[in-house]
Write a structure and sequence with these properties.
A 5-stranded mixed beta sheet has the order 3-2-4-1-5, sandwiched between helices. The protein is 46% helix and 15% strand. It is an alpha/beta fold. The longest helix has 17 residues. It contains 8 helices and 5 strands; from the N terminus they run ββααβαβααβααα.
Length: 180
């Protein structure tokens, strides 16, 4: 349910650590702000600067599969992708796993999307929403909606499960203040 990010590279680049992205081309999904934040936080920790100043070029793609294929076909040396996209591409084309490798991984703490209710919301309505979402029958219409919203599933997040994410972003914002 929670997302994890990978920094991947071709095995032929002999990259072993995050700093190896220096003056290289990086592919990243165009509208994934979380991926952008994750790679930037790593750069602020390792290099004391925004990753956009550290890499040679950034290729933004609409689809994660294209981001992975950019590395596979040597259009870029590195890419940031979700674990889900990586696993799917390896399953579809095992040769990708033989020629590409994971350089570093994020914690599995990220939410793809979050909807909220306030503390004055009717508990029965909230409970009904989650019961309905668990029981959604997969039809063409609901599949189209999930595709449109880029959802795989709907699940309830408890307040405590956001603690790691809060710590992560507080650290990130402090690094941004310090180095940007």
């Amino acid at each position: 349910k929670l997302m994890q990010y990978y920094l991947i590279s071709s095995k032929s680049t002999n990259a072993k650590v995050f700093k190896d992205i220096k003056n290289k081309t990086l592919s990243i999904t165009e509208y994934d702000q979380v991926a952008d934040d994750w790679i930037n936080k790593n750069s602020l920790i390792e290099n004391k600067m925004n990753y956009k100043k550290y890499v040679k070029d950034i290729i933004r793609e609409e689809k994660e599969s294209t981001v992975i294929l950019n590395v596979f076909f040597k259009k870029s040396e590195f890419a940031v992708v979700t674990k889900n996209a990586w696993d799917t591409m390896i399953a579809l084309n095992p040769s990708i796993g033989k020629s590409l490798e994971i350089i570093t991984k994020s914690e599995e703490i990220f939410l793809p999307f979050i909807g909220m209710s306030n503390n004055k919301s009717d508990e029965m309505l909230i409970d009904k929403f989650f019961r309905l979402s668990r029981d959604i029958k997969r039809t063409n219409e609901t599949d189209e909606l999930f595709t449109l919203l880029r959802f795989d599933t709907i699940f309830e997040v408890k307040k405590d499960s956001l603690n790691a994410l809060e710590i992560y972003y507080n650290e990130y914002f402090e690094l941004k203040k310090k180095y940007e």
